[in-house]
Design goal:
- This protein has helices spanning 10-18, 42-48, 111-114, 121-134, 152-172, 194-206, 302-320, 360-378; strands at residues 2-6, 26-31, 35-37, 53-55, 65-69, 72-76, 81-84, 89-91, 94-97, 101-103, 144-148, 178-182, 210-212, 215-221, 224-229, 234-238, 241-244, 248-250, 254-255, 267-268, 274-275, 278-283, 288-289, 334-338, 344-350, 354-359.
- The chain contains eight helices and 26 strands.
- A hairpin with a 3-residue loop joins strand 25 and strand 26 (354-359).
- The protein is an alpha/beta fold and 379 residues long.
């Protein structure tokens, strides 16, 4: 059973590293980079230059999975063909698609041309280099930073930059960065429990971050954005660095006459994570429009991508042994939001529908533990 895994993000790596050498199962993992990125730590790379990648090849020892560095152009599901950008075409019996998401700019005028994003390590390095440059002697540009989007990524990034700004300000004697957090919705961190959200907002304010909720970015230019509040009033904000974290959509790489699309360009899958109308194709992570047995959508998080990957690995081995597939049922262990330094907020889900809320150092430790658990799962 010739199987190809596309993408070495959380879903793809979880699939590959959970596999064991199995008769009748030949697996190839393809990714355009030779390393796996810890995407949930990209804000730390952007703020403090932390190393957030690890080589792929050593992680595959003992799995029976081969690795090839290549870029995918598109996949023809009807022909069972993976088209690579170097011109090669690979056929498959089973396919696992876990190629993540891309930034959604929602057609906002000038945003894609003038804003940075935080999707890959190169993006983090670009932000990190700019922050350091802004504190060098002789720098004359604007030292204001505008972050669009106050979800998990935007909030973690802006607090990391705030902490880094304090460090560099103390070191150089220069004023710190002026930071703006712009959010079209009514609050920051909308998926976080209200009390934890209030604690996070307090931390943002303590850093001196200007929070503009219920303000949408309607236009971006070189060095500025125009925001509009619910009353229609507009304001221009100048900034030397603009970063957009306000939305994602699945990568548009799959072609097929019978594809069933879901929200955000995702592909609808059944309970076994197989694409509807394409039972030989498993779609997981940000590219999948998956639902729990009660119909609730599966969140697009690293935690759930990892679950889906491990479940898909088990189902691939079942297929190779001629066994029936088992349905996937998501579960949430909780979530934690880094707020710079040793500060974090979050909650652990306990048996009986109980949640244990944590803040400060305790939450920070749990955030670290979540990452360590992931590392142990793939090594």
């Amino acid at each position: 059973m010739k199987t190809i895994i596309l993408g070495a993000g959380y879903g793809g790596m979880a699939t590959a590293t959970a596999l064991k050498p199995t008769e009748n199962l030949d697996v190839l993992l393809i990714d355009q980079r030779p390393y796996h990125t810890y995407y949930t730590l990209l804000h730390e790379a952007a703020g403090h230059g932390k190393t957030v990648t690890t080589p792929i090849q050593p992680l595959l020892q003992g799995t029976g999975v081969e690795y090839e560095q290549a870029s995918v152009d598109h996949v023809d599901l009807d022909a069972r063909a993976v088209h690579l950008k170097d011109g090669r075409v690979l056929d498959y019996d089973k396919l696992v698609v876990s190629m993540g998401s891309e930034t959604n700019f929602y057609g906002i005028k000038g945003l894609q041309e003038n804003a940075d994003v935080l999707k890959e390590i190169e993006d983090a390095e670009k932000i990190y280099d700019w922050v350091n440059k802004a504190f060098e002697p002789g720098y004359t540009g604007s030292r204001d930073v505008i972050i669009g989007g106050a979800g998990l990524t935007g909030t973690e990034l802006i607090t990391e930059l705030a902490q880094r700004s304090e460090e560099l300000s103390f070191k150089t004697g220069l004023p710190g960065l002026k930071l703006y957090l712009v959010e079209a919705g009514p609050t920051v961190l909308p998926t976080v429990d209200e009390k934890l959200r209030e604690r996070a907002i307090g931390v943002l304010k303590d850093y001196g971050i200007e929070i503009l909720t219920s303000h949408k970015i309607v236009e971006a230019a070189s060095g500025s954005v125009t925001v509009e509040n619910q009353a229609g009033a507009r304001r221009q904000i100048e900034g030397g660095k603009i970063v957009w974290t306000g939305g994602i959509r699945a990568r548009n790489l799959l072609r097929g006459e019978q594809i069933v699309g879901g929200p955000g360009n995702r592909i609808k899958v059944d309970q076994t994570l197989q694409a509807q109308n394409y039972p030989d194709v498993f779609v997981i992570g940000d590219m999948a429009a998956a639902n729990a047995s009660d119909g609730a959508p599966v969140p697009s998080t690293a935690q759930h991508a990892g679950q889906e990957g491990r479940h898909t690995a088990a189902n691939l081995m079942r297929l190779a042994r001629g066994e029936a597939l088992e349905p996937y049922e998501p579960y949430s262990q909780g979530e934690f939001v880094s707020l710079g330094g040793l500060m974090a907020v979050g909650a652990i889900n306990l048996p009986g529908d109980y949640r244990l809320a944590l803040t400060g150092v305790a939450a920070h430790i749990m955030k670290i533990a979540t990452h360590v658990r992931w590392e142990l799962n793939i090594k």
